[in-house]
Amino acid sequence: MMRCLWVSMALLAALAGPASVGPFRSVPLLAQQPQQQDEFIPIDQLPPQDQLPAAPLLITAYSFVVLALFAYVLSVSRRLGTVQQELNRLQSETKRGRL
Amino acid sequence: MPKWFVPVAVICGLMFAVSPLLIANAPYESTMGLVQKIFYVHLPSALIFLIAAIVCGVASVRFLFGGNPRHDRLAWAAAELVVLFGIITLVTGPLWARKAWGVWWQWDVRLTASLMGWMVAVAYLLLRRYGGPGSDKLAAGLALFGMANVPFIYISVNYWRTIHPTTNVLPTLPVSMGLPVWFTFATFFLLFLLLLRMRVRLEEQRARLDALYLSMDA
After folding, report:
1. Complex ipTM, two decimals?
2. Is 0.90 surpassed by the pTM of this model?
């Protein structure tokens, strides 16, 4: 019984030991950590390694819009031209056939 | 082409020339900076994407119940523009999001529903191209799903928690930012009308060509 009590107390002391000295140890540990920022940081105040350049994204977006619209206009114009040519050819052939 | 086509094309060209000046002179948004200028093409293209889906849907309903091929041609033309303005929206959005949100894409309701709407339009075009006889009616049915998706895309940001801005942003914009965005929207809308007319004209000419071939065979 007493042996169990001694073992329990020893275990408790072993567990409580680091906790009791913890606050004394935490001072140098906290001092090693970087200073915490607990508020919003505007994007232009971020450190350079965390910043993503905006200009390439903006240029890509606008270039894509212009190219997509231009390609579509070109595509419709070409399709329209081809159909119109075919239509003209057929109409002239029909007229010649009638004559 | 109708009489209004050339004057509207000239006005649209002039507006396209003026738009970059207005966008460049618009003030920088305080938190996002330069990249926020993508907004001036992203939002108008997104609105035209939704308008084109509605035009496609309404024309498809009229074709399904009336059977007029004019409505079918309009729906087909609008579906192509859904794909065009949809891809512009879906490309410019992630380019903006990468800088503003730190990610290219979020599987939130608006983005996912927009992607679905775009894919419905692509499916419509594939069905028209490779579906064979009867695909016009089937595609018209598909266009109804595309149109039904539009209000869901628009209001989803107000009901689901998402990082995409809500619909309240546009009415509360200051004039210095609101003017360029509405001007660009007007430019895109005129372009949409011109492209729609051109595309409908292409289908009209194709129909004439088919009729001519059929008359030659007879």
Report:
1. 0.91
2. no
